């Protein structure tokens, strides 16, 4: 009976871990106590594993690490590789929160290696790969990060993993944000939000709400930016997650300061500073210092703002994205107070770090990976188009071969050839194909037509296929026109997009 009670506590904790973390933690703790009394080491390890996840998101990193390591020892001894991999992921996430990103990345790599031996759990492998991508973004290796995210997406698509796909889209959104492609960032973030809501993952839902708010802010859409920040603060408050509350409040404070909402900012800053003592998360503490600095600048206290930002910079020692953001704020302050020497020094630091983050080599690799990634994202659609175009080519070649064979033959009239063409290549093929492109790639077509209004409807369809790297011969077969006509349209598209001779058209279309 007691064993069943412990099992039911574990089951209830798992059900609530994404939606009600505080309640779930209490249940897991109760299950651990019950398992200790019964000397049931397996159930104790399960309870500690759940506690590790929940303690981390609730901001208690000491408890999180102790629980994760305790569970890991048991699972390793019993050679339970799937659970071992999960504990390694937990330890990596804790290490990430402590600010040691490179060590966290190694833990995620080890988790992937262990998960690879447990062939049945594709979700663990996808999660380990996704977390590696997130860590690589944080330490300034975007090309390598995108390669990992691409690997993870392939697994998600193969096994139809909804929750893991949501997490991947969440970090792909971050990648495009860093590339200053806010439309793509919003697109992936919106997809991530939908998938995470379906998965009942309210913790990561809160993260994505913030990401969407930031992207709207960069697009100068202040109404939507505020709407998503307010949703994030409300959700973080409901969940009781300290570090998520820190980030959500910091974003809201930035919005309030930028939109001259002084009284609201005062209240938000007080609430934010009260959270400083409640979190052991280094990144959260740095975020608090950075937000406080922005607030001090509105009070005309640059010395306090600079002090907070310098402390934040130390906390972000291995977190390059954070360092870039802090240096940008410092530079702005030094310029405002006419401190030329410090402004120049900070500018040099900022540019050196940014060059390292977005090196020329990285950019070339990123461009290539972006193309592969977009093809992978639309893999089902691309495969359909490839098969369809191949089918059309084969039909056209068959018709031509029949025409040659019967050319000059007596007794065969022209009507026979017309009937053959109608039977082998019905007109509905072209209509279905055009409808497929219009519906499947509607978002891209809308973006392209808005940015280059001079493109005709035919050029928009052809551009869509060129973006997928489809050869001119196959495109010609789809539209039943000559390759020369496709090349003519290709030249027009290049001209209307104002591309240089050296520019790659497919890559240019990928970046729209």
Low-confidence stretches: 426-431
- The sequence of SSEs as H and E is HHHHHHHHHHHHHHHHHHHHHHHHHHH
Reported for the largest beta sheet, the result is: none
How much helical structure, as a percent, in the residues? over 70%
Q: Determine the structural class based on helices, strands and strand pairing.
A: mainly alpha
Gyration radius over CA: 28 Å
Shape: globular
The number of helices is: 27
Average pLDDT reading = 81
Tally the beta strands: 0
Question: What is the end-to-end distance?
Answer: 61 Å
Beta-strand residue percentage? under 5%
Summary keywords:
512 residues; mainly alpha; 27 helices; 82% helix; globular
Compact overview of the structure:
This protein has 27 helices and no strands. The protein has 512 residues and is mainly alpha-helical.
Describe this protein's structure.
The chain has a domain at 378-510. The protein starts with a helix and ends with a helix. Helix 11 (202-218) runs antiparallel to helix 12 and helix 13 runs parallel beside helix 15 (282-298). It is mainly alpha-helical. The protein contains 27 helices and no strands.
What is the fold's blueprint, element by element?
Blueprint: H1 2-16, H2 21-38, H3 41-57, H4 61-77, H5 81-97, H6 101-117, H7 122-138, H8 142-159, H9 162-178, H10 182-198, H11 202-218, H12 222-239, H13 242-258, H14 262-274, H15 282-298, H16 302-315, H17 320-336, H18 340-357, H19 360-377, H20 379-406, H21 414-424, H22 428-440, H23 442-451, H24 457-467, H25 472-479, H26 483-496, H27 505-510
Helix pairs in contact: 1-2, 1-3, 2-3, 3-4, 3-5, 4-5, 5-6, 5-7, 6-7, 7-8, 7-9, 8-9, 8-19, 9-10, 9-11, 10-11, 11-12, 11-13, 12-13, 13-14, 13-15, 14-15, 15-16, 15-17, 16-17, 17-18, 20-25, 24-26, 25-26
């Amino acid at each position: 009976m007691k064993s069943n009670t412990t099992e039911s506590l574990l089951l209830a904790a798992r059900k609530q871990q994404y939606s009600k973390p505080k309640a779930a933690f209490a249940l897991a703790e109760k299950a651990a106590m019950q398992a200790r009394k019964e000397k049931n080491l397996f159930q104790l390890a399960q309870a500690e594993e759940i506690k590790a996840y929940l303690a981390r998101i609730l901001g208690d990193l000491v408890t999180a690490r102790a629980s994760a390591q305790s569970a890991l020892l048991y699972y390793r001894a019993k050679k339970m590789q799937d659970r071992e991999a999960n504990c390694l992921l937990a330890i990596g996430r804790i290490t990430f929160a402590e600010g040691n990103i490179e060590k966290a990345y190694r833990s995620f790599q080890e988790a992937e290696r262990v998960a690879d031996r447990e062939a049945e759990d594709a979700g663990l492998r996808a999660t380990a790969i996704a977390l590696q991508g997130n860590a690589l973004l944080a330490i300034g290796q975007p090309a390598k990060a995108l390669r990992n995210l691409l690997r993870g997406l392939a697994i998600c698509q193969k096994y139809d993993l909804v929750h893991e796909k949501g997490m991947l889209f969440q970090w792909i959104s971050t990648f495009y944000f860093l590339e200053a492609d806010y439309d793509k960032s919003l697109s992936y973030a919106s997809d991530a939000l939908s998938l995470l809501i379906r998965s009942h993952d309210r913790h990561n839902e809160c993260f994505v709400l913030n990401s969407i708010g930031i992207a709207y802010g960069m697009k100068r859409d202040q109404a939507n930016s505020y709407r998503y920040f307010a949703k994030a603060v409300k959700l973080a408050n409901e969940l009781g997650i300290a570090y998520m509350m820190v980030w959500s409040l910091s974003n809201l404070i930035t919005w309030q300061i930028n939109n001259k909402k002084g009284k609201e900012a005062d209240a938000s800053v007080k609430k934010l500073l009260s959270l400083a003592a409640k979190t052991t998360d280094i990144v959260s503490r740095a975020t608090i210092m950075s937000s406080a600095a922005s607030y001090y600048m509105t009070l005309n206290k640059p010395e306090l703002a600079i002090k907070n930002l310098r402390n934040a910079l130390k906390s972000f020692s291995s977190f390059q994205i954070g360092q870039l953001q802090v240096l940008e704020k410092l530079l702005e302050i030094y310029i405002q107070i006419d401190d030329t020497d410090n402004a120049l020094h900070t500018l040099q630091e900022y540019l050196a770090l940014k060059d390292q983050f977005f090196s020329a080599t990285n950019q070339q690799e990123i461009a290539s990976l972006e193309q592969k990634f977009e093809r992978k994202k639309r893999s089902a659609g691309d495969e359909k188009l490839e098969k369809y175009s191949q089918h059309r080519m084969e039909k056209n070649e068959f018709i031509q071969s029949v025409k040659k064979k019967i050319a000059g033959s007596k007794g065969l009239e022209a009507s026979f050839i017309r009937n053959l063409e109608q039977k082998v290549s019905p007109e509905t093929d072209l209509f279905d194909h055009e409808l497929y492109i219009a519906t499947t790639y509607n978002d891209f077509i809308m973006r392209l037509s808005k940015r280059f209004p001079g493109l005709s409807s035919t050029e928009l369809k052809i551009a869509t296929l060129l973006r997928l790297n489809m050869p001119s011969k196959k495109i010609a077969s789809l539209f039943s026109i000559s390759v020369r006509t496709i090349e003519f349209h290709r030249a027009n598209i290049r001209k209307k997009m104002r591309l240089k001779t050296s520019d790659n058209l497919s890559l240019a279309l990928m970046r729209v």
